């Protein structure tokens, strides 16, 4: 294809510079849009080798940070790709089914599953706590999220074989609504770290919640208007709480209650923040009406300039 | 295969609005042959320069630029000085001066601070083009009177084409763009950021009896109000809707049918 545009001088970037730029675009893709970004990027680069190498490096990072959820073959359920479930770069543990999902990052699919090895799984002591928590979180997620996905992973002390040892769980809850072809994507991610401290008999709980929403709208409003917009919203909140170390079942109930409580409170706070936006927060940018509370008197503008002229002539101007 | 330029614009649309400067410079380095096309398609945050003589700030844009110099609407001088530079006709300059004075009052009444500049120039079809610009820093440390915003940048660009006068009527075509970036950080709602840009167009045929300035001003006031409304209603509305879809408030969940 001899495009006119190709006759002009091309970029003089080095291979590595091009690759870094390509990675930057992929990593900055909004939730659910990486494949669309990849398609445009390929067309801009027109360099398969650079693109492939950039994709190999960027997709795993993107998939883990967005905690994408992949369907495992043979109806084994879904696995969340995250640093908490990572065994190797392409292998992710699904503790609920004790299986390991083999993942193709660039295709964003799970190609096969294998049973987890013994050393990849937690001890039966830990598993008792993890299972109990899994069941409670499952109840909470199914009650509160129409399409939520969750995982409970042990990230520290998984080999503890009885009381006397510290261990740590991470609960991930994600929900997303993607329609990338309509440029409208929302995602909810909450990550809860639960640190079981044996000596103090306390459970230290830290939560991080992030909601992102991107939309690129293009609308025609009647014959004389069109409107287009590209808007991104990002909301974040961190939480801290604690409870006492109890039996596996009681811990699970207490943790799930804490998570439920904070997430519900946060939603209520977000509602309040939204309701204040139009009248308070936005007012610091631009008021709905002028300070005079009436539309600007454009018809009197002649008056303004006459007054100024007079002021100038009388030497009153600033 | 997609055309490079089409794909580049696709990338710019999908990148987070806060990263648009980085995205643009990355694309400029990948596609130097398309630099002027790319630059004309992307709105970047407005820049400001000081007119030392008039002791006032003015806003920079394509419409007051000649070579690497920018014309101040206050002194009508280029910064840095430029020989053989372009100037509007003396008649249009008179309207420009008037527009700057009045628009500054308008800006103060709606924005309670900020900077504004108006530029005008003749176009090819016997009419003229005017560009009204406003830049407001509504953050706590800037001109935010209520202290609600950690960061709050609002840039408004109104470009209006005015056709030649015919039987005491004229055609007006206004394109308005708002670029916004705000963050709040409060307990208990946490960090909350909104950024992006929206653009709208409006065409009207109006009697010129009250003067061009009056007509242009009313159109700008109306469209600016609509865009502000879109930002807080449409976009926030959608965000709220999205959050409710992902994680509905408790009472909605309880009302769900058991099989849904």
From TrEMBL, chain A:
Source organism superkingdom: Eukaryota
UniProt-listed PROSITE patterns: F_ACTIN_CAPPING_A_1, F_ACTIN_CAPPING_A_2
Keyword Mitochondrion: no
Keyword Transport: no
Pfam families: F-actin_cap_A
Similarity annotation: Belongs to the F-actin-capping protein alpha subunit family.
Function: F-actin-capping proteins bind in a Ca(2+)-independent manner to the fast growing ends of actin filaments (barbed end) thereby blocking the exchange of subunits at these ends. Unlike other capping proteins (such as gelsolin and severin), these proteins do not sever actin filaments.
Protein name per UniProt: F-actin-capping protein subunit alpha
Originating organism: Brassica cretica (Mustard)
TrEMBL record, chain B:
Pfam families assigned to the protein according to its UniProt record, in alphabetical order: F_actin_cap_B
Alphabetical list of InterPro entries matching this protein: CapZ_alpha/beta, CapZ_alpha/beta_2, CAPZB, CAPZB_N, F-actin_capping_bsu_CS
GO CC, one annotated term: cytoplasm
Gene Ontology process terms (BP): actin filament organization; barbed-end actin filament capping; cell morphogenesis; response to heat
Presence of the UniProt keyword Transmembrane helix in the record: no
Summary of subunit composition and partner proteins: Heterodimer of an alpha and a beta subunit.
Name assigned to this protein: F-actin-capping protein subunit beta
């Amino acid at each position: 294809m001899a495009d006119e545009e190709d006759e002009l001088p091309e970029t003089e970037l080095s291979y590595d510079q091009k690759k870094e730029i390509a990675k930057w675009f992929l990593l900055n893709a909004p939730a659910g849009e990486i494949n669309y970004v990849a398609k445009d990027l390929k067309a801009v680069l027109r360099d398969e080798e650079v693109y492939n190498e950039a994709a190999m490096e960027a997709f795993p990072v993107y998939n883990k940070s967005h905690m994408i959820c992949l369907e495992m073959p043979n109806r084994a359920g879904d696995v969340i790709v995250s640093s908490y479930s990572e065994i190797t770069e392409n292998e992710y543990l699904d503790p609920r089914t004790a299986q390991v999902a083999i993942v193709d990052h660039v295709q964003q699919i799970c190609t096969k599953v294998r049973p987890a090895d013994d050393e990849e799984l937690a001890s039966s002591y830990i598993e008792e706590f993890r299972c109990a928590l899994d069941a409670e979180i499952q109840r909470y997620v199914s009650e509160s999220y129409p399409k939520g996905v969750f995982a409970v992973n042990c990230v520290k002390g998984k080999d503890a074989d009885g009381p006397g040892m510290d261990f740590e769980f991470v609960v991930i809850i994600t929900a997303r609504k993607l329609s990338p072809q309509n440029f409208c994507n929302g995602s909810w991610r909450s990550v809860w770290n639960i640190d079981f401290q044996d000596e103090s008999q306390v459970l230290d709980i830290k939560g991080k919640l992030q909601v992102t929403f991107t939309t690129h709208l293009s609308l025609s409003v009647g014959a004389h208007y069109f409107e287009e917009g590209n808007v991104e919203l990002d909301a974040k909140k961190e939480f801290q709480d604690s409870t006492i170390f109890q039996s596996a079942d009681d811990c699970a109930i207490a943790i799930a209650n804490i998570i439920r409580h904070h997430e519900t409170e946060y939603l209520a706070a977000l509602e309040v923040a939204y309701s204040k936006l139009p009248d308070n927060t936005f007012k610091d940018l631009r008021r709905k009406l002028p300070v005079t509370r009436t539309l600007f008197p454009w018809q009197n503008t002649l008056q303004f300039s006459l007054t100024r002229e007079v002021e100038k002539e009388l030497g009153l101007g600033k | 295969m997609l055309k490079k330029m089409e794909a580049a614009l696709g990338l710019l649309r999908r990148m987070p609005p806060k990263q648009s400067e980085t995205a643009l410079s990355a694309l400029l380095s990948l596609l130097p042959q398309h630099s002027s096309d790319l630059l004309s398609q992307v709105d970047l945050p407005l820049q400001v320069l000081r007119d030392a003589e008039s002791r006032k700030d003015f806003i920079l844009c394509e419409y007051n630029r000649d070579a690497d110099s920018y014309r101040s609407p206050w002194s009508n001088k280029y910064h840095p000085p430029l020989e053989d530079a372009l100037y509007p006709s003396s008649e249009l300059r008179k309207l420009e001066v008037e527009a700057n004075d009045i628009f500054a009052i308008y800006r103060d009444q709606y924005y309670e601070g900020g900077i504004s500049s108006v530029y005008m120039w003749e176009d090819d079809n016997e009419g003229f083009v005017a560009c009204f610009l406003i830049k407001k820093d509504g953050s706590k440390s800037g001109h935010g009177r209520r202290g609600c915003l950690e960061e709050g940048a609002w840039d408004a660009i109104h470009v209006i084409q005015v056709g030649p006068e015919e039987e005491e009527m004229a055609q007006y075509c206004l394109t308005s763009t708002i670029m916004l970036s705000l963050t709040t950080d409060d307990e208990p709602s946490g960090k909350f950021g909104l950024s992006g840009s929206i653009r709208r167009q409006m065409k009207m045929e109006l009697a010129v009896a009250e003067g061009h300035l009056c007509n242009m001003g009313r159109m700008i006031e109306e469209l600016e109000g609509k865009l502000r409304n879109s930002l807080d209603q449409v976009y926030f509305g959608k965000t709220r809707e999205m959050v409710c879809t992902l994680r509905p408030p408790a009472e909605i969940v309880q009302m769900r049918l058991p099989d849904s």
